[in-house]
Amino acid sequence: MMDHARDLASVCEATDRLLTAVADLDDAAVTEPSRLPGWTRGHVLAHLARNADALVNVLEGRPMYVSGDARDADIERDAPRPLKTQLADVRDSAHRFQDAASVSQDWSRTVELRNGVLDTAAWLPFRRWIEVELHHVDLGIGYELEDLPEEFTQREINFLAHRFHGRPEVPALMIRRDDGRMIPTGAVEGVTEEQLDSGYRPPLPDLVVSGSRADLLGWLAGRRDGTALRVEGGTLPSLPPL
């Protein structure tokens, strides 16, 4: 069961960590490149603020963004702002998201995200947590994948493995967690993590990928090239962009 209230608390903690770290920068540092191609740190901060407002839209029954072009234009518009303005926007938009998510509502309902993606409302706080944690790393200011909360890292590995499950462009493979459990992903037919957890043992893919949680997450999330991972039964595949 998704615990949206607990995830909302985790979003608050992650946002506070990010704001504290960013407060040590200066205006010049905000204009420097982030780890995301083509984006400065200002782009990352602007995206975080606009993403919070976009999730408020979803919670309140409106389209997440007016359009993809409008989303991109808003980020470009806000990216060059000075540090003080960026911090205030990230903080204020985070409060708006928390306020919208604190309203009594049906968390089991289906909501529509960007590009027509459907999800359950209860997943929205975790999706916001993903944005805050990974983009904190993307800022390139000393917060690394190894610094992410352990619970978050494993849940995000599971989330991304599920996202790639059934994708024909990703070969069938198993991700071996550091506790020995196996997560199926890619073009795996008839194998789910629930089946494996129940003790059922269908034929499994020969390709097995393992490594540290940080390296697994980095590969799945497009933040690392996977060279630190161990691969059995073949070569490490390239993953499509998220």
From TrEMBL:
Pfam families: MDMPI_C (PF07398), MDMPI_N (PF11716). Residues 147-233 form the MDMPI C-terminal domain. The keyword Transcription regulation does not apply. The keyword Magnesium does not apply. The lineage of its organism: Bacteria, Bacillati, Actinomycetota, Actinomycetes, Kitasatosporales. This is Maleylpyruvate isomerase family mycothiol-dependent enzyme. One of its GO terms (molecular function) is isomerase activity. Residues 13-139 form the Mycothiol-dependent maleylpyruvate isomerase metal-binding domain. NCBIfam families: maleylpyruvate isomerase family mycothiol-dependent enzyme (TIGR03083). Keywords: Isomerase. InterPro entries: DinB/YfiT-like, Maleyloyr_isom, MDMPI_C-term_domain, MDMPI_metal-binding, SCP2_sterol-bd_dom_sf.
